[in-house]
Amino acid sequence: MIRVKVTKLLELVPFYRTNQSIESITISGITMDSRTVSHGDVFICIRGSETDGHAYVTSAIDQGAAVIIAEEDLDIDFPVITVNDTTKILAMVASTFYDYPTEKVYTIGVTGTNGKTTITYLLDEIYNLEKQTTATIGTIQMKIAGDLYPVKNTTLIPFLYREASAKWLIVVWKQPLWRFLPMHLIKVECMDAILILLFLRT
């Protein structure tokens, strides 16, 4: 089980404030869904299009959250870290929690109007032929070392990508999430992709 001091978790966060001391707090997980909170997790309040994570703080605490990260001051006697944008902070703390996994895997991003799924599947097969362990993540499904998993969202949230990257050798990514994630982005049409594949082999 991973356990990280909250103060280390925040080392990439430039500005934040707390309502009480957080020096002694250690966390064992990250979640933005109050239904999945486990003992020792940090619960990050994300404002969505249909619901606001700030409304579920009490539920997260009841389920064992160790600390809350929010965009607004909360009038509660519980450790709260207040930041300007919890969505951006989510990516930062996930990177730290999982020991910067994107620096240890080779990541390819594919974007464009047509052919994204085809390109990722072609890349996946080529790397597999070279005996490389791969994972593909997209709107249809996730495939991890040959095992298939359903996806709930068309755009995966950053901390799930970080968690996955901590376990995979190579990630072939299809969603254009450069807003959140450091990755090599390839914008190609199908014929250009063949040239890039040849380049990757050299």
List the keywords.
6-stranded mixed β-sheet; 202 residues; 22% strand; disordered C terminus; 13 strands; single chain; 6 helices; alpha/beta; 5-stranded mixed β-sheet
The percent of residues in helical segments reads 25-40%
Q: Would you count the extended β strands for me?
A: 13
Average pLDDT: 76
Query: What letter string, H or E per element, gives the SSE order?
Result: EHEEEEHEEHEHEEEHEEH
Shape: elongated
Question: What percent of residues are in strands?
Answer: 15-25%
* Low-pLDDT ranges: 165-202
Q: Report the major sheet.
A: 6 strands, mixed
* Sheet with most strands: strand arrangement: 11-10-9-12-8-13
Radius of gyration: 19 Å
DSSP helical segment count: 6
Structural class: alpha/beta
Q: Give the terminus-to-terminus CA distance.
A: 39 Å
Description:
This protein is α/β, with parallel strands linked by helices and 202 residues long. It has helices at 6-9, 57-62, 86-97, 116-129, 158-165, 190-201, and strands at residues 4-5, 17-18, 26-27, 29-31, 41-44, 67-70, 80-82, 106-111, 134-137, 142-144, 147-149, 170-173, 184-187. It has a six-stranded mixed β-sheet with strand order 11-10-9-12-8-13, covered by helices on one side. Strands 2-7-6-5-4 form a five-stranded mixed β-sheet. The protein has a two-stranded antiparallel sheet with strand order 1-3. β5 (41-44), α2 (57-62) and β6 form a beta-alpha-beta unit. α3 runs parallel beside α5. The longest helix is centred in the middle third of the chain and has 14 residues, at 116-129.
